[in-house]
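The aim of this short unit is practical: by the end, you should be able to scan a pair of folded records and say something sensible about each. We start with the first protein, listed as its amino acid sequence and then its structure tokens.
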Amino acid sequence: MAGITTIFEIGRSGIQASQQGLAAAAHNIANVGTDGYSRQRAILEAGRPQGGVISTGVRVTDVIRLVDLFIEAQLTATTQDVGRLTIRHDLLSRVETVFLETETGGINTAIDRLFNAFRDLSTFPEESSQRTLVINEAQALVDTINLAAGTLSQIRKDIDDVIGQNLSMVNTIASQIADLNGQIHVAESSGKTANDLRDRRAFLVNAMAELVHIETVEMANGLAIMVGGQLLVTGDRNNTLVQVSDADNLGMNDVAVQRKDGTKLVVTSKINNGEIAGLLTVRDTDIQGYQDRLDRLAAVLVNEINQQHAAGYGLDGTTGNLLFSALSPDVPLAADTNSGGAAGTSTTVSTAASLTMDSYEIQFTSASVFNVVNVTDNTTVLSAQAYTSGATITFEGLGVVITNSSGTPATGDIFTLSAHKGAASDMAVSVSNTDKVAASSTSTGVPGNNVNAIALIAIQSISQSTLGSVNVGDYHAVTVGDVGSDTFLAGLQRDSKQIELDQVTSLRESVSGVNLDEELTRLLEFQRAFEASARLIATADELFQTVLNLGR
């Protein structure tokens, strides 16, 4: 049978439970504006009855975070998407300015002005002033293309720097998460839940997810985080993300996970979301694609104009003069997966008319045998050729030399090359003497013959097989359209994903967010319960005093 003492205990338990409920509600109200905060609830349960029948009041079993793990996972995933798409759109918007075409500026405008200069030359082939105009407009075209190439290269370098900065931020967050893992492990060893520490960790996880694609697994010693399949955080320890040189990517850097023992594991290809993924996509896919088209355009202009110009005669009667500096292809580039000791030495143009402007791979099937594969159309150009160090490999207008540097090639080694790579940045005017500008088709036709000038004019409208059977103007117009289309599509994708993120954030708020009206209601509820429990203790005290007075 319950006595007065039991009533005291029930009142005391009610006061304690109400205090904890009030504290939880007050904590929620105080953190109504805290990013990443999840509202908390005191979980009440009837006290264990004495003897199975005598009530003992109420007790707080736990103070929990109100979270939906599915929504939290969706929030992390969507945050990664928004980070990737936002930075990609921002960078493509910057790239788009490189290809702007106006009435007075732009690559196609510069091309038109050069061919208009050829037209003026064909009208007045005997005039030195028209030849001066040709050289000036050729230089203007070179300057325009050089500037575009330089700007694209600079954007890539800037992106590489930003990736390094983002890796530093990821490493800082990883260290904080590892520290929180340790704190949570200690705090929860008593069986309670470290709500605020878990909120802070979840907030940091989403901050990291915005920067880089991560995978998380809840372990006994805390949250494990992986990047590219490699552990970045495990328990209270963390590895770091670093940049390592990417030999076959024009001085850019790969992303690697560096372990405590110094081992570096490259994970670039496995990072497919987050801001860093967007940076990598623009740097290594988008811009490289635009650079390739710009290089191809420059190479075709140089190659076609030079061939025709060299066939004509200048006012001084000379022939074989090049308007632009001859193409000087980059040396064969060794893949960073090569394990042999051979190195690319040189790539030269052996027959200008035979150039395809396609990309090639020299693939070694053994230390002494190689194939040449056109990777643009996926055809084999040369098969099972015997390799000799320093010997020229000739195919489709190119002469390529590979030499044994620190050793011989290894099976599986690959060297990549093309005639046009780097042509936009290398493009330069060769002729400075106006008398060498070739308008005539014969030496005897100087100065009045304009046949070669007319042939130069025709290059602008000829469909070039090296440009996919379109003329130079249309080819560049497609490039400009591609950049604009990619930027527009990236903007649509970003906006769509941002709407999705807003929706997921709203869902999270409905589950985990603080509602002030609800919290005020709970405050009043626990306040009344506290007052009632206090009144219960007062009543029990009065009863106790009555009992004492009966004995006097």
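Turning to the second protein, read its sequence before its tokens, just as you did above.
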Amino acid sequence: MSYQALARKWRPRRFSELVGQEHVIRALTHALDSGRLHHALLFTGTRGVGKTTIARIFAKSLNCEKGPTSQPCGECSACTEIDAGRFVDLLERGRYKVYLIDEVHMLTKNAFNALLKILEEPPPHVKFLLATTDPQKLLVTVLSRCIKFNLKRLTPEQIIGQMQHILGAEGIAYDEEGIEVLARAADGSLRDGLSLLDQAIAHGGGALHAHEVHAMLGTVERAKVRVLLEILASGDGAALLEEIERIGSFAPDFAQVLDELAGLLHRVQLIQLIPAASAADDADLLGLAGRVSATDVQLWYQMVVTGRRDLPLAPTPRVGFEMALLRMLAFVPATSAGAAHPRPVPVPAVVAAPRVVSASSAHVPAVPAPAAHTRHAPSSAVPSERPLPPPSAQSRVAPTIHAASGHTTDEWAGLIERAELRGPVGQLARQASLIAIDDGTVRLALKPAHEHLAVAPMLTLLEQRLGAALGREIKVKVERDTVGIETPAEQRVRADNVRQQAAEESVRSDPFVQSVIDTFGARVIPESVRPIES
């Protein structure tokens, strides 16, 4: 028996077998079940999304011996002949005479003119099913006589699901990355995806493996792209050029490599900012998420998509790709003080579970209002009254810092600066208040509104950074704040409000401003006043 292509063998024969297009299926099934059948239907959409398939199933539903029905039997002569593509009723016999015109936009002007009259006043037994990939070329008079269904491009997840179903039924071995690569290459078309799947199975000798798929499509494996990110995080320029040379030896599509790189950066950012939204297979990116700051990831992503956009303008795609990565290596975000932002310390790939516990029964006294914390305090600034141990004091035991002291928030803010806590871990630290540092344990309090920040990767990174700043191993214990201790973030907001009010008062009391108000009836808009940065 001759081989039948997967796209033909697995062509849906019932509405329930269709992938996607639920909005179209629902409208057609309701129309069939209620008997409200319009005489002309127009299906639009890109290639391979099911236009002709839906039209054939609809024709089968109309002429099934048990119909019209939204669930054709698939066994009567009408159903079997339509499935086999030899049903004369699509033109001449049966309960309904169904005219299926594919790529209807290619009809000539004279053919459209001949079609218009019958579309306007068709016999009750005639149905027109029109399909097109370019509805803009249809006459408005034709469009107004049809019910229009816009078929959507299929998502990669929908294509992956159908491929997995087919490969399981066919008994063909496969791996997940190989299917994902094919689904992205299908570009929203299931038919294109199944044609590529046929090609990949033949290329792989009856199996589907990622390295064979990449070789067939001229793309680069995700693991190799991840190596590029690891090298960029380490700042090793020589190793970066070596890896670019290794990737270039495969003569890949460099635009696809940049697309893959942008996708990985997106997954890293999700791990950093919204850990709950990360996928189950993102565990191999945890270490990278800990080593690279969130601002670095944002900057790198922008450089990647810009490099992808400018790739056609480069002397060669290889040069454009190389320059995009060298730009990522060269530029590092600056801190608010204008200094270069150093790369964070490494974080192990295996992280512990969150250590969020309820508040202890011990009463934690309130903290008096501290002095305003200036916006541009140097990173080495430490409060003078009760300095924390310097990094070199490895063997010295740190004094206990209790919440009852008058400068707890200042001391905690100073330690945050010393530990260079930026991005998500910095947000966690600034939204917490320091209870005490005792016996290698940093006790922090979080208000209920910010407890979601205390996730395992951030706690582990916080321990790493604080340990590096204090010169010894540190464990972080997070408790619930039930007494309202002021945090560095709240201190900052309070100080900013004070500065803003002072600035507004200074403007209002200025003699020149008073003169303008008195002469012209002007008024000061508070939102337009900004304090002068020190």
